[in-house]
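Lab notebook, page 48
Experiment: co-folding of the full assembly
Goal: obtain a model of how the components sit together before planning crosslinking
Operator: M.T.
Materials (sequences as entered):
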Amino acid sequence: MTTNQDVATQESTGVEKRARERATALIPAVDIFEDAHQITVQAEMPGVSREKLNVQADRNELLLEGEMTIDMPEGMAALYADLQTTKYRRSFVLSGELETERIEASLKDGLLTVRIPKRVEFRTRKIKVNVP
Amino acid sequence: MFENLFGGFETDLFDQFRRLESEMGQLFGHSPWPAGIRAVQRGTFPPINVGATPERVDVYLFAAGLDPKKLDVSIQQNLLSLSGSRKIEANESAEYYRRERYDGDFRRVVTLPDDVDPERVEARYRDGVLQITIQRREAARPRQIAVS
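Observation: model returned without errors.
Model output:
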C-alpha cells in the first residue's frame, strides 16, 4: 500500500520535472525520414556549438540537447525577443530494429543531423517477382 | 549574461507588460494591447532577438543551415530588413515522418531605435545565427556630467 503510494508520488514528481524542463527549453524543429538503410533526424539548433551539444541514445530513447553560445556585449538589454531561453531539448522513442550503438551525428551551421542505421535483417529488400 | 537578452524582461514595468502581452498572446492568440505594426505572429521563421547597449544594437536571427550568399540584409534609417531563402532538398527516395523545418523564402523587418547609424553595420553568420551589429550615434549615448 505504502509502496504503491511511493511509486505514485515518484512518478508524479518525475512527470512534473519533465514538464518543467520542457516548458523552459526550446523544441527544435525536425525533419525525420527513413530510407532502406537508416532513419535520419535533422534538427535545427541555431547557436549551438559542438561543445554545447549532447546527443544521447539508449535502447529506447534518442535525446537531443543543446545550449546556445551567443556573442553579447556586456550590459545588453532585450528590446525584443522571440526566443526567451537558450536551451534546446527534444526526445524521441526508438524501436528495437535500430542500431543505437552505431548512431552518427554531425553539426553544421546549427543544423544537427543524426543517422540511425537499421539492423541488417530489417533493411528493406526488393523482392523480385518471377513471372512464369 | 544570457538572461539579459533572452529573459531579462522583468527589468522594468513596461517590459513586464510586454511579457504579459506575449504570454496572453500565446494563450489567446491575441492580446488586449496593440501589437507593433511590423510584429509577426508567433512561430514565424526565423525567430529574432534584439538587444541594445548605449553603444550599439544587436539583432540576432536564428536560422540553421543558411547559405549566407542567399541572404539580403539592408538598412534604411532605422528599419532593418532581413530577407533570404532556405531551400531544403528533399530526399526523394526516403519516406518522411516529420517535415517541420521551414522551406522557402522569408522576410523580417525590425524597427531599431532612432539613433542607430546606418553607415556602421556589421553582419556575421556563425553556428546558424546571423548577428547584425549596428552602432549608435555618439550624441545619443548617455554622458556623465561632472558636478563641480
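Interpretation: The first helix of chain B runs from residue 2 to 6.
Next step: discuss with group before ordering constructs.
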